[in-house]
Give the backbone structure.
Amino acid sequence: MGIEIIIDKCTGCALCIKSCPFSAIKIKNKKAEIQANCTLCGSCVESCKFDAIILRRPKLTNKDLSGYKNVWIFVELREKEIKKVSLELASKAREIADTLKEKVGAVILGEKVKHICDNIASYGVDIIYIAENENLKVYNTNTYNSILTGLILKYKPNIVLFPATHLGRDLAPRVAATLEVGLTADCTGLSIKDGLLLQTRPAFGGNIMADIISPNTRPQMATIRPNVMKIQNPKSTHKAEIVSTPVEIDPKAMRVTIKEIIKTTKTTGKSLDEADIIISGGRGMGSAENFKILEDLAKTLNGVVGASRSAVDAGWRPRTDQVGQSGKTVSPKIYIACGISGKIQHQVGMKSSDTIIAINKDPEAPIFDIANCGIVGDLFEVVPILNEELKKNLGKN
């Protein structure tokens, strides 16, 4: 089992060398030759135009799993800083690893990002696998997949967790497909049962919760929704072993080139999934223009505006503002639901908020079942009055 060069087909074109991030291929006598540091990531197979490279990975069975140890997380960055969801994953990984009596590993890919190692280590990470290269500054599916797949094949983690963000939802399935292992998406709960990772996620429109295990393959892989795992208090005394992974990336060999990044979300203030105060509107808002009163309240409270799926589907708010099962999962200190009935699909995305305040004309609305404080009334009367009183008490004009 392994990787093989078909000599008769190999032309010595060196395309495989350009595609290999680990510098594990050399040309000898005008033929490609695989070096001992090959990780079987498979990037060379995709690059070869002559079908001269064959990759055979061993199929995993129950007998092969004893060598897989430790709980890994993929650390997502935003402008070279750790995203909040990565701290959530690190905290949960520490809890899982303690149960299994294993270590926590973190994978960091980027350009000049070693400065964040102490920070992520303080949340319980024992080993940090870091790859730095100027061509890793911007996320690229194929490049990140090759490096991460190579690291997994080399070090054999038992569990690998990804954030269920746009990036994580793109990368995790690619890695899982390359490794031919299972992946549970959008988990809201993780635990250990009989030595296996019990992965919990909503199913059938959020009406039931499904528990999923992967008993026959390794690593066990899952993406985790942001804002569902509690962040533990960091310990500055906790230090991690740093494992630097040299990588060589030829921009000419990259199948996709990022020409420009266009931001369609807000350029100022916190994003919806990282805000401390969220004021959300639903079908009861009636129109896009009526969201102005929620924006005014959000300005008073230094919060942000969210929306239910019905409001987004009606075109009143952009998709990036959607809270719920098919939108973002949030966990602010205060969540104010205005004109939102609160069906289970919406509750999945916000029920972990510290304090939930509901404003709705229907006293039977499901949102009141989970609200800490409920106001039965017309939101167009209640919200302006609430805003004015807050302004007086907060000293804002």
User: Anything to note?
Assistant: The chain has three domains: 2-56, 62-247, 272-394. The radius of gyration is 24 Å. The chain has a mean pLDDT of 89.
